[in-house]
Amino acid sequence: MNAFAELMAFQRETEALASVAGRLGWDQETMMPRGAAEQRAEESAALEAVLHARRTDPRLGDWLARANAPDAAGERALDLIARSYNRNTRIPARLAAELARLTSLAQGIWAEARANEAPADFLPTLTEVLALKREEAACLAEGNLYDALLDDYEPGMTSAEISAMFEALRPRLVALREAVLGADRQPAEISHIFPENAQLRLAKICATAFGYDWTRGRLDMAVHPFSSGSGHDVRITTRISETDPFNCIYSTIHEVGHACYEQGIDPDYLFTPLGAGVSMGVHESQSRIYENQLGRSAAFTGWLHTRMVEMFGDFGVSDPQAFHAIVNRVSDGFIRTESDELSYNLHVMLRFDLERDLIAGTLEAADLEEAWNARFATDFGRAPERPSQGFLQDVHWSVGLFGYFPTYSLGNLYAGCLNKALRAAVPHVDAALAQGDASPATGWLRENLQRHGGLRQPRETIETACGFAPTAEPLLDYLEQKFSAIYGL
């Protein structure tokens, strides 16, 4: 075997082991008995130690120096392996294993604290996680500590670029949101009980409509919905409130967007560095366009309204147009994952600013709740009423995902660009969505973006699919047109 073939064979085993580690994480959030938390933490740490040893194996450096790629995909694979090798060799094996052990434990501690509205039960653990993430950032950084962590989720992106993006989004978002909340025309609220089993059946119908391959996936329940896996095993989760069916329906569609990206990648890339989504921003572009531009469109909500009447009977909304307005209702709620399209990015901006301060050391975990509540009151006009509505609502910091949050808004921006390009290329999208058929849209996304996996850099992935460089304008134009129509502005 030549150096390239040897390297790719070694990498294939590393990718397979990483898939096993991901399956352990899925099991922990869905099936694992609560009493197994400490054992799982040790298992996760042991597996991370093996993975870290493989990712820093000196043979990688030798293979990379000698390997000649046969094609462009091979060149890109070499670049990604080299990037991983260079980053991982800066992180001590002790730190990698301790992070895996602690964040596995912290996830359960966070869930208990959230359920019991007991932040004091979580803050000592968060302090430990934060110390390890600061240590990791110091190992990786060539400048800004936060940028070193952000690069894990959005390679090539900096906090300065994220800040500029937020500055471009915020003024028009805030102005539109204020106009909407002050409009005379306001959608009604639904007051009805939607049985859990029926919601789950409808969620599966919606997942099928958006192209989720059930032979390579499954739907389970989780405290915080997520998608896990790649290739031929991509699993999704959702959550259910019997008074709010849209929580379940749109959490499911959102995770289907992530899952279909992974299921849609060229199978030849399986167990290679190209066999997963290229970045979290690009990944989020898929979940957000599935959920919002497609799933909350007037065309699809018209179809969804009919399905809900069939399944739940008369739930107080007989008009599809009124139903569309309810689905897209703008409110001043506390929860990011349940927020409307106008409020969502403000939730992300808050987290971005706070986590930058946490990593920089200008904010400590002990002061986080107070800082969160003060910032939320500034942005939304009122403070959270309990910790689960505030800084305890998200799982991310408990599992060490510092630098992850801004990719959500970056994904929204990318989704706006993709929606513009999609509708220009496939003008009959809405006619199909009105029949519960998302395949013209999802087929275009699969062909132009999803199947390429990690073949291109994140920004290049979006630009190639759209035919133009990504900007905030398509997203803002879409939001202004949509919500002006709904609220009669």
As laid out across the biggest beta sheet, the strand order is 1-3-2
The CA-CA distance between the termini, in Å, is 67 Å
Rg:
22 Å
**Please, how many helices?**
20
**Which shape, going by the Cα principal axes?**
globular
CATH architecture of the largest domain: Orthogonal Bundle
CATH topology-level name of the largest domain = Neurolysin, domain 3
Q: What is the C-level CATH assignment of the largest domain? A: Mainly Alpha
Largest sheet: 3 strands, mixed
Indicate the structural class. Answer: mainly alpha
Query: Low-confidence segments, ≥5 residues, pLDDT <50?
Result: none
Strand percent estimate: under 5%
Helical percent range?
Answer: 55-70%
* Series of secondary-structure elements, N-terminal to C-terminal: HHHHHHHHHEEEHHHHHHHHHHH
Number of E-type strands: 3
Number of domains: 2
Calculate the mean pLDDT score and round it: 96
Which labels suit this protein?
3% strand; 489 residues; three-stranded mixed sheet; Neurolysin, domain 3; Metal-dependent carboxypeptidase; mainly alpha; 20 helices; metal-binding
Structure characterization notes:
Helix 11 crosses helix 16 and helix 14 runs antiparallel to helix 15. With 489 residues, this protein is an all-alpha fold. The protein is built from 20 helices and three strands. A three-stranded mixed sheet has the order 1-3-2. 46% of the residues are buried. The model has no long low-confidence stretch (mean pLDDT 96). It has two domains: 3-140, no CATH class; 159-487, Orthogonal Bundle (Neurolysin, domain 3). A hairpin with a 2-residue loop joins strand 2 (227-230) and strand 3. The chain has helices at residues 3-30, 37-55, 58-66, 72-88, 93-116, 123-140, 145-153, 159-181, 196-209, 245-264, 280-294, 298-312, 320-327, 341-360, 368-380, 406-425, 429-433, 439-448, 458-466, 473-487, and strands spanning 219-221, 227-230, 233-238. It catalyses: Release of a C-terminal amino acid with broad specificity, except for -Pro. Pfam families: Peptidase_M32. Keywords: Carboxypeptidase, Hydrolase, Metal-binding, Metalloprotease, Protease, Zinc. One of its GO terms (biological process) is proteolysis.
